[in-house]
Amino acid sequence: MNITVEQRVRDQLDEFRRDGVYKRLNHIESPQAARVAMEGRGEVIILSSNNYLGLSNEPQVVQAAKDALDQYGAGTASVRFICGTFTIHRELESELASLVGTDASLSFVSCWNANEALFATLLGPDDTVISDQLNHASIIDAMRLAKAIVKCETAVYRHSDMDDLRAKLVAAKDRRTRVVVTDGVFSMEGDVAKLAEIVELSRQYDALVVVDDSHATGVLGATGRGTAEHRHVLGEIDIITSTLGKALGGAAGGFVASSAAVCDYLTQRSRPQLFSNALPCTVAGSALAAVRHLRGHPESVTRLHENTAYFRQQLLSRGFKPLEGETPIIPVILGETAKAIQMSEMLLDEGVFATGFGYPVVPKGEARVRCQISAAHTRADLDQALEAFTKVGQKLGLI
Ligand SMILES: *Cc1c(COP(=O)(O)O)cnc(C)c1O
């Protein structure tokens, strides 16, 4: 190893430890579920997983991965266009499109990958992408990549500020294409994009709407079809990207959902499709079973919504001040990163795992413990977690 690089990273790591911002990785010894075995502690209640519907350990989902392994083997051993497209990929893509309300979809090995593929392939030097300030890192990097490769312009509007979005659309009115991109649910705040207004404004200024629904697919809307269902604009979104790594089985993978032509064009031209292996068939199998499970069990979405409302209301009544919202992402702001990490460690000692987030994942001074609720939690799980929150909150003088 180059000695200066080695020394520099060691010094940095020492600094993280000194500042109390070094992230210890917890080792999980059982399947992801409401409770998991972690760090030899026995069972810990998980309030930190994107396993919103509990599908990552749903027997039908796990069995589907095993069946796909038997039927298709370990891997694709190829990119999609050479010999990496299996029938199960096509089945999955058609179910995903139907779930989110588009004509077609195309799977990728991650939503990060899907976002990177999208802008750099569809746009050119005469186009402008207009992005919400709090969009996910994968959207930010996808825009940087597109800017570097195809020389499109980019602009950022203040978080969910429709006046600012309008101003950015006006400023881009002479461009060939305007693209407005937003997270459906913002992962660190847990708030929902004002999608009806965004669709309306985008129509007015002839812009394309892209929604990254990673935290909303299987989560928002009465039947889990995402932010568009929640905001009553199902079928009106031009392009949806989302992950298979959260509510839909939690393994990995992502997709772009749009018209058949857009998906075909990404198949023909996007670099991740052309130069990187297809989604493993095991994952396509488990994700397909997860989508079918979701379609067949809308009551699991109802349970998720009920659990979320209960936990939020209980935190409030116990004196906590979580950020307002209606999604299963419930952040409690603490300020300094070290304090958020301390609270997270104290909760873990009480048998509850809720991750502390600090800079650079959230802005300096806005460190937080983020709770995520799942349909897999029972009322007893939630009550036990709330008791731990109360105990730790009192010790830290938060309530
Ligand atoms: C989690 C997340 C991603 C990343 O998804 P992967 O499939 O794990 O790459 C992308 N976008 C948003 C908005 C996310 O929340």
Question: How is this structure best described in words?
Answer:
The chain has 399 residues and is α/β, with parallel strands linked by helices. It is built from 15 helices and 13 strands. The protein has helices at 3-18, 59-72, 80-84, 87-100, 111-122, 137-150, 162-171, 195-204, 227-230, 260-269, 271-275, 281-296, 298-317, 337-349, 379-395, and strands at residues 35-37, 43-46, 104-108, 127-132, 153-157, 177-183, 207-212, 239-243, 254-258, 329-335, 352-353, 356-357, 367-372. Strands 3-9-8-7-6-4-5 form a seven-stranded mixed sheet, sandwiched between helices. It has a three-stranded mixed sheet with strand order 1-2-11. Strands 10-13-12 form a three-stranded antiparallel sheet. The N and C termini lie far apart (49 Å). Residues 110-112, 136, 138, 183, 187, 212, 214-215, 243, 245, 254 line the site of pyridoxal-5'-phosphate.
> Residue ranges: pLDDT <50 for 5 or more in a row?
none
CATH class annotation of the largest domain: Alpha Beta
CA radius of gyration is: 21 Å
Lateral strand order in the biggest sheet:
3-9-8-7-6-4-5
Succession of helices and strands: HEEHHHEHEHEHEHEHEEHHHHEHEEEH
Distance linking N and C termini: 49 Å
**CATH architecture designation of the largest domain:** 3-Layer(aba) Sandwich
- Overall structural class, as computed from helix and strand content, comes to alpha/beta
Question: Which small-molecule species are bound to the chains here?
Answer: pyridoxal-5'-phosphate
Strand content: 15-25%
Compute the number of structural domains.
2
Superfamily (CATH H level) name of the largest domain? Type I PLP-dependent aspartate aminotransferase-like (Major domain)
What about the largest sheet? 7 strands, mixed
* Proportion of residues in helical segments: 40-55%
Q: What coarse outline follows from CA principal-axis ratios?
A: globular
The number of helical segments is 15
The CATH topology of the largest domain: Aspartate Aminotransferase, domain 2
- Number of strand segments: 13
Mean pLDDT: 96
